[in-house]
Design goal:
Distance between the termini: 49 Å
CATH superfamily of one domain: Vaccinia Virus protein VP39
Strand content: 15-25%
CATH topology of one domain: Rossmann fold
Helix content: 25-40%
CATH architecture of one domain: 3-Layer(aba) Sandwich
Bound molecules: S-adenosylmethionine
Structural class: alpha/beta
Shape: globular
CATH class of one domain: Alpha Beta
């Protein structure tokens, strides 16, 4: 079952869960595990629209969850997505995508315009580039260091809250969990993750044995456990009834 596999694979459970019959948008699907979990929760009377700008990821997610009937995978992004402006969604999930979006105020406005009154956004994001990632880029891919760093647009939690309120939302919850767990059993698993999370911009051809040894000098021998004080943030906000004077 999708719910079970999501629960087993994910350390981070959503702060808000949909109910049967809900209309859900999952903005930025990755492998689609969360999307399939949500589809199971909304049941046959509800639906989940999943958008992602990365066509190869979208295709992989679609293939992995093709048996799920109430799940639609559609190319899109925070500026242009199926149902944008429709005021129909009950919840919009954005799981680890805010730090990918350079222009966040527009993204919040688009989400606001797509939710029904009383609808919510549930977001998880990083407010910095995790130090172990920055070090890995610097040591293993110095030629691409700038490009890799520039892919991410992390913003501090207070500023995200402000963007959210400016778009019209009431913030219900905004917090950082105590710690962020990042664990890699081997050098290969870390490399795989660096390639995957940067959509292939991190280049394995640039990773020499000498560079790996330098990294191990800095991190110690694998397994690499980068569990640390949290740089993850979580946000739940609601679209309020319009204020009449
Ligand atoms: C770290 S993955 C998270 C995937 C998934 N939500 C999860 O929790 O596993 C980030 C995803 O956001 C997508 N993304 C990047 N920019 C985006 C944007 N402007 N709007 C929507 N999705 C975006 C990427 O293609 C990628 O699939």
């Amino acid at each position: 079952m999708a719910a079970e596999s999501y629960q087993q694979s994910s350390a981070a459970k959503p702060d808000v869960l949909p109910k049967p019959g809900d209309a859900i948008l999952d903005l930025g699907c990755g492998t689609g595990e969360l999307s399939a979990y949500l589809a199971e929760l909304v049941g046959s009377k509800g639906y989940v629209i999943v958008v992602d700008p990365d066509l190869s990821r979208l295709q992989l997610a679609k293939e992995a969850h093709r048996h799920v009937k109430n799940l639609s995978f559609i190319e899109g992004n925070s500026d242009k997505f199926e149902g944008m402006g429709s005021e129909t969604f009950d919840i919009i999930f954005s799981n680890y995508i805010l730090h990918w979006i350079p222009e966040k105020s527009r993204a919040f406005r688009n989400m606001f315009d797509s939710l029904r009154v009383g609808g919510k956004i549930a977001a998880q994001y990083s407010d910095i580039i995790p130090p172990f990632m920055a070090t890995s880029y610097e040591v293993l891919n110095p030629e691409r260091f700038e490009q890799l760093n520039n892919m991410f647009h992390p913003v501090k939690r207070d500023d995200v809250d402000l963007l959210c309120v400016t778009a019209g939302f009431d913030v219900m919850k905004s917090y950082s969990p105590k710690y962020t767990r990042d664990f890699y059993p081997s050098v290969e698993s870390l490399l795989q993750w660096l390639v995957g999370t940067t959509h292939g911009v991190f280049d394995l051809h640039l990773v020499t044995q000498e560079r790996i040894e330098l990294l191990v000098e800095k991190f110690g021998n694998p397994p690499f456990d980068f569990t640390t004080n949290s740089f993850d943030c979580r946000l739940v906000a609601v679209k309020p009834k319009s204020q009449t004077l």
